[in-house]
Design a protein that fits this description.
This protein is mainly alpha-helical. Helices cover about 55% and strands about 10% of the residues.
């Protein structure tokens, strides 16, 4: 039989071409059923999916400046999972290379932004004149507050 095989009795519009020695052209594992080659669906790497989730969480945490240290930790975890996801995507039957790359990029951005924020904070806090200016601004705001606040009773 030289023509590509179709589904049972020709009712399947998708054409499935047989591979060499039980493997189709794309390298995914196959099962052979009575004159028909069926490819098994590829699975996305769990490490790649988690890398994307951790990368998004890290990026959001870094953008919420107070949570920057949490974003740094999540970014490092996402970076490791992204590398593992890329390695897993090389195997036959496993997909997720793009997902792993997206997780790596977001995790790396989160790490860079978090380190930049930490460096900026250390620079400002080690500068005595900047600390004095901040203290003066806090004192001015404190002076503007009323001395006595009446709270209405129900």
């Amino acid at each position: 039989m030289n023509r590509p095989l179709t589904g049972r009795d020709g009712d399947d519009p998708r054409r499935v071409e047989p591979g060499i020695e039980g493997r189709p052209v794309d390298g995914r594992p196959v099962a052979v059923e009575e004159q028909r080659v069926v490819t098994k669906p590829a699975r996305t790497s769990a490490a790649a999916a988690f890398a994307l989730a951790f990368g998004v969480a890290a990026f959001v945490c870094v953008l919420v400046v107070i949570l920057s240290p949490v974003g740094l930790i999540l970014g490092i975890v996402g970076l490791v999972l992204g590398i593992l996801g890329l390695r897993a995507a090389r195997r036959v039957g496993i997909t997720g290379k793009g997902v792993a790359i997206a997780g790596l990029v977001l995790s790396a951005l989160a790490i860079v932004i978090s380190i930049a924020f930490a460096a900026g904070m250390v620079t400002v806090l080690n500068n005595d004149s900047a600390v004095d200016r901040i203290e003066q601004q806090v004192d001015k705001m404190r002076d503007k507050l009323p001395d006595h606040v009446e709270v209405p009773q129900p």
